[in-house]
# Entry
Amino acid sequence: MRKIILMILLAPFLLTARTMAQDKAPTKKQCDADFELIASDAWRAKRTIAQLGDSATEMKSCDDAYTTLNRRYLAAMLSCVAEIMGRQDAFLKRHGFHDAFLQEDADGKR
# Structure
């Protein structure tokens, strides 16, 4: 049971890691276009966890290559991560693991 919960919690990060090694950053034009899509709650709601992970990775690459004062690409990356985390939390609650997860964390099982 613990292994299942651990895999559920780590899956988005493992999925994201597969795309971390990009040869080069996307173009500024592509970053801006993708930012506009990712900024939409409706767009994020329709994407799979794997797609959200890929988008988060791309926005991180954009932020590294084209950092702006307001860090909008970083904000877009974090919105994808927040969507993933929200879905994980909903899954834990839906399947009755949420209280056990919180109790294990309170007990120091990390």
